[in-house]
Design the sequence.
């Protein structure tokens, strides 16, 4: 895995007229995992999008070294194609192969994405993200809709990723079990 | 990166060609033919009248047919996060929109040009009218596809984007209509050349305008 670092300095985020948070900094390097915690609406998803470079911060900046993989509530899989085709599309772009075995997706590959349940979609999105082979993982509520077994698989996946020298940032209001994970309470930065 | 763009183009094309996965791409063709079929019923079957007005009607039908696929062009990909995933992989919005523009035209322009033949028979158009109608549509459909994509990207994040898109396309398409349909009664090629020039300009700016619209939608 390529070396990766992620530095966010003095980030502020404004949505509409409201300042969600300000003065937030963090510095992560290979092997680090960070849990963004806080209640709904505190700005976890906005922070994830700022770190991903999809949203401009109101103040401050983010320096990324290494490719970014994002998992959020939208699986980015074509509703009208089969799961196998939808995953192959991303695998072809990323130049890898989709790992369907880990998430128990093997028997769903012929099923069109629009027929999948919430949990199955989330598993498919995890498989898509894991197949991207990017060193920085941003996970926005990765455990939503997953059953107990799938939660364990997702936690193991993140553990293996960090062990291999990757960075993982997890925004979740649920507990996410991970050894040596840093924790950032977003409400502390609410002005 | 070229490999990735080729994959994106293949997906766009499979999605937007007639009978493609996102469906409904045959609708513009059927709509176009339906107008050509209904027009003689409405104005009467006099051959002289039909021959005189038929070319213009075919142009209006083509322009309105261009409205039909707009809601499927950009909005579904913006909603389900595909465009965000492209951006994360360093594929610019301009590049993915350029690919979509080509795929959109291929799924809409050539089939429409083919549908002109049965439409010309229904309207009783003569050889010269058919000639200039075909050339005009070949020159004008890339421009219609470009306007359509630009507007689809601009309205992708709106709730009632499609209705708005229809209203926005009409004024922007007027120059293409004026010169394209105008070349039929005058019977010279300068109108076709002007239509092609407008189309080229629109095709050139559309990837940038659509890309900027998508970035703005992301911030919203």
Sequence:
């Amino acid at each position: 895995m390529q070396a990766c670092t992620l530095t966010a300095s003095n980030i502020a985020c404004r949505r509409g007229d409201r300042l969600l948070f300000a003065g937030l900094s963090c510095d992560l390097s290979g092997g680090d995992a960070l849990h963004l915690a806080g209640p709904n609406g505190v700005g976890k998803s906005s922070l994830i999008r700022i770190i991903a470079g999809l949203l401009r911060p109101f103040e401050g900046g983010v320096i990324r070294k290494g490719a970014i993989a994002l998992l959020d509530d939208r699986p980015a899989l074509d509703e009208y194609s089969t799961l196998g085709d939808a995953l192959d599309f991303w695998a072809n772009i990323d130049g890898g192969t989709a790992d369907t075995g880990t998430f128990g997706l093997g028997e769903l590959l012929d099923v069109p994405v629009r027929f999948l349940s919430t949990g199955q979609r989330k598993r498919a999105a995890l498989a898509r993200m894991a197949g991207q082979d990017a060193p920085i993982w941003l996970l926005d509520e990765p455990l939503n809709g997953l059953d107990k077994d799938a939660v364990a698989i997702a936690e193991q996946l993140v553990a293996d990723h960090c062990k291999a020298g990757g960075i993982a940032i997890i925004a979740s209001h649920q507990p996410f079990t991970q050894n040596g994970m840093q924790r950032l309470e977003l409400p502390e930065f609410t002005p | 990166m070229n490999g990735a763009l080729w994959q994106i183009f293949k997906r766009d094309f499979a999605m937007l060609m007639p009978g493609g996965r996102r469906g409904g791409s045959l609708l513009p063709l059927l709509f176009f033919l339906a107008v050509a079929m209904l027009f003689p019923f409405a104005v009467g079957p006099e051959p002289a009248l039909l021959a005189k007005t038929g070319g213009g009607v075919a142009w209006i039908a083509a322009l309105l047919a261009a409205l039909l696929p707009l809601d499927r062009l950009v909005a579904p990909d913006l909603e389900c996060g595909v465009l965000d995933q492209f951006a994360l992989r360093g594929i610019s919005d301009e590049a993915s929109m350029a690919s979509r523009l080509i795929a959109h035209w291929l799924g809409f322009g050539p089939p429409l040009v083919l549908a002109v033949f049965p439409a010309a028979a229904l309207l009783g158009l003569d050889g010269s009218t058919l000639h200039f109608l075909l050339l005009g549509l070949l020159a004008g459909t890339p421009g219609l596809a470009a306007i359509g994509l630009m507007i689809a990207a601009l309205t992708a994040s709106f709730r009632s984007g499609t209705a708005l898109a229809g209203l926005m396309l009409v004024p922007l398409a007027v120059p293409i209509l004026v010169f394209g349909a105008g070349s039929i009664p005058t019977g010279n090629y300068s109108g076709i050349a002007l239509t092609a020039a407008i189309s080229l300009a629109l095709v050139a700016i559309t990837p940038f305008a659509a890309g900027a619209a998508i970035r703005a939608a992301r911030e919203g």
Observations:
- Chain A has a mean pLDDT of 89.
- Strands of chain A lie at 5-15, 18-29, 33-37, 59-65, 68-71, 136-140, 167-171, 182-185.
- The longest helix of chain A spans residues 148-163.
- Helices of chain A lie at 44-52, 83-94, 118-131, 148-163.
